[in-house]
Write a structure and sequence with these properties.
Two copies of one chain form a homodimer. By secondary structure, chain A is of the alpha+beta class. Helices cover 21% and strands 40% of the residues of chain A. The first copy, chain A, contains five helices and 15 strands. The first copy, chain A, has a six-stranded mixed β-barrel. The radius of gyration of chain A is 19 Å and the shape is elongated. At the A-B interface, strand 13 and helix 5 of A face strand 13 and helix 5 of B.
């Protein structure tokens, strides 16, 4: 019993003494370049926002895209808008195995040397020759949060979450921008592995 | 650069100063009671060993079982033999979502209050009223290893693995038996979340 109280005490002290960050689990999705949106959805067609996401200006779209790999397909993958410089497909390792592609672990936008996949929309198809990644776990961080806790852009930190499946995620990349709301993003494999629940907080360990 | 060397030094020191344990990823599978094997495969039918597993006496079987849940099915799930006291289906959270069942996180054999699922084999069907779990991460540990490193049965430890997706698994249960070979078992969600590769070693943290 005193063992349990000791452990509870340690846990509370740990959580009080480390910065907290809210976790979000990102399902598979894609971003489209303006040129690919033209080819897939029709020239000049606007993406239709459905839900605002936690990152300011980002939204899920009414339009869906079929994504086809060598071994499987997702018939209606979610698009996250607005358009980006390059099209990008973000999968979990489970999703990648299902499609039959072998994407590397990368931060968003770092697409050199990544595999491609076929995209199909109502207006046509695009064979991406690159753009598929497994998103490396990261924290979108507002500079105010970073200043308050002495953190910096591109810093590698760990984040501990408490649950029956408690995990400390190591190699978490801090990404700083005044356009960000402070959230840590993990994929569904990571969410399942740590007993993720909506609103879950993690402790940032430097 | 000196930052990199410092980190490398810390990592090497950490790995040298903690007991190592080899990880194995368990895919979805089931165990059958003798009575359920009779109903599914035919009275008195023996399970046919195909591959020996790392745990002494445990093997995958040539026979396969269809597992049906409210939302999906696995047409040919692997059986791990020999027979057990109770039938038990072990899924990842991803698998459970696919089947439409909500199993709790449990150690093997702890089946009270767990959901059931339909099993179908060449000789018939069985509606399990309980037996589906998500396996709680654990270390099968031989007593010699435990003695050498001062660990005990049911101890809760953490295990850190190094990879681009490095993770420290907390709440890992030590299970001691002279019948065990020393291996840590994780499921495929956890394997994907930590960048698992065959032969991967983890550092045991008390």
């Amino acid at each position: 019993m005193s063992d349990v109280i000791d452990r509870l005490h340690d846990t509370v002290r740990f959580r009080l003494s480390h910065p907290l960050v809210q976790l979000e689990a990102s399902g598979r999705h894609l971003h489209l370049s303006r040129a690919d949106a033209d080819r897939l959805l029709g020239p000049g067609v606007s993406l239709t926002p459905v839900n605002d996401l936690s990152q300011p200006g980002q939204f899920t779209c009414a339009e869906r895209i079929k994504v086809t790999g060598p071994k499987g397909e997702f018939p209606a993958l979610v698009i996250i808008g607005p358009e980006r410089r390059e099209s990008q497909v973000e999968l979990s390792a489970t999703d990648a195995l299902f499609l039959g592609v072998k994407p590397p672990l990368r931060l968003s936008g770092d697409l050199a040397g990544t595999p491609g996949v076929r995209l199909t929309g109502p207006a046509g198809s695009v064979d991406l020759d690159h753009g598929v990644i497994i998103a490396q776990r990261h924290i979108h961080m507002h500079p105010n949060y970073a200043t308050r806790h002495g953190l910096r852009d591109r810093q590698v930190v760990s984040v501990r979450v408490w649950s029956q499946r408690g995990v400390t995620f190591n190699n978490v990349i801090v990404r700083l921008s005044p356009d960000f709301a402070t959230y840590m993003h993990i994929d569904y494999d990571e969410a399942n592995a740590c007993g993720f629940r909506k609103g879950m907080l993690g402790s940032v360990i430097v």
